[in-house]
């Protein structure tokens, strides 16, 4: 079971911003999408989650668990997304409980409102909220950027989607929250979700992901395991992006030994 995108191409006006990108994510696997700023990671993510801007022209083939799926389809079943900008993802005039409870009921995580509230509290605790009851009663504007980001992460995980597209989910978070979120992703993958993690944090990616796809100027320049990318990568960007992570992982292993 996997999500496969082939020959993805995105244009806005006369600009060809993503060119022939192909990648796959297996259920239960976490794949990193790395690359310099402006290389096309967010556009690629948006095309998979059906949230490309209306001005974008998209071409290519998407298959979800063997089922061909239109790339422009905005109501895509089975794929949840975490976007970079958490303020636009949450309804500003709706309290957090009313943004989480319906998702948990729809996904079958809970069958009653009381059960969904209890589950929401637990999931909020798992991403570092010390007072989840209070958070559930808040409006998004009463929370910090990092808190809103973690609520979007809980909302996406609450969908229990087969695939999760996470665009820089931990950028606004402190170190402890980052670790908790990565641990929640690991748990989701162990439960069978396929995750695409877009990040500039190569060390975090190498600790969580089995392999990475590297984009530069809208094209895939390399992909494979982190040790492959660090040692034999054909493209200098792939080498520089993965070298530090590989060094850290290797040092950690030596320290542990
Ligand atoms: N709606 C849009 N209209 C026109 N150009 C866009 C649009 N969205 C993105 N771009 C351009 O497409 C290119 C890729 O953008 P994208 O946001 O995918 O990069 P990214 O790799 O996610 O960067 P970052 O790491 O900084 O988030 C950039 O040159 C950007 O300016």
Automatic annotation (TrEMBL):
Predominant localisation class: membrane
Stored Pfam families: ABC_tran (PF00005)
GO molecular function: ATP binding
Membrane topology: Peripheral membrane protein
InterPro entries: AAA+_ATPase, ABC_Ni/Peptide_Import, ABC_transporter-like_ATP-bd, ABC_transporter-like_CS, P-loop_NTPase
Entries under PROSITE patterns matching the protein: ABC_TRANSPORTER_1, ABC_TRANSPORTER_2
Domain ABC transporter: 3-242
Protein name: ATP-binding cassette domain-containing protein
Keyword entries, A-Z: ATP-binding, Cell membrane, Membrane, Nucleotide-binding, Transport
């Amino acid at each position: 079971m996997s999500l496969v995108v082939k020959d993805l191409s995105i244009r806005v006006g006369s600009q060809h911003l993503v060119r022939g990108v192909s990648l796959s994510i297996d259920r239960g696997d976490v794949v990193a999408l790395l690359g310099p700023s402006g290389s096309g990671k967010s556009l690629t993510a948006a095309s998979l989650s059906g949230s490309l801007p209306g001005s974008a022209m998209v071409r290519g083939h998407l298959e979800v668990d063997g089922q061909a799926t239109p790339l422009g389809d905005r109501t895509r079943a089975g794929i949840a997304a975490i976007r970079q900008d958490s303020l636009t993802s949450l309804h500003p005039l709706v309290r957090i409980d009313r943004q989480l409870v319906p998702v948990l009921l729809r996904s079958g995580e809970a069958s009653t409102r009381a059960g969904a509230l209890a589950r929401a509290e637990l999931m909020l605790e798992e991403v570092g909220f010390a007072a989840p009851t209070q958070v559930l009663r808040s409006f998004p504007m009463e929370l910090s950027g990092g808190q809103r980001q973690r609520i979007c992460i809980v909302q996406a995980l609450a969908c229990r989607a087969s695939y999760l597209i996470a665009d820089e989910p931990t950028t606004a978070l402190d170190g402890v929250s980052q670790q908790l979120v990565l641990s929640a992703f690991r748990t989701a993958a162990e439960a069978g979700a396929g995750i695409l993690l877009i990040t500039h944090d190569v060390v975090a990616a190498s600790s969580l992901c089995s392999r990475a796809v590297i984009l530069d100027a809208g094209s895939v320049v390399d992909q494979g395991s982190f040790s492959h990318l660090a040692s034999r990568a054909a493209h200098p960007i792939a080498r520089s992006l993965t070298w530090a992570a590989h060094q850290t992982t290797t040092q950690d292993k030596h320290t542990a030994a």
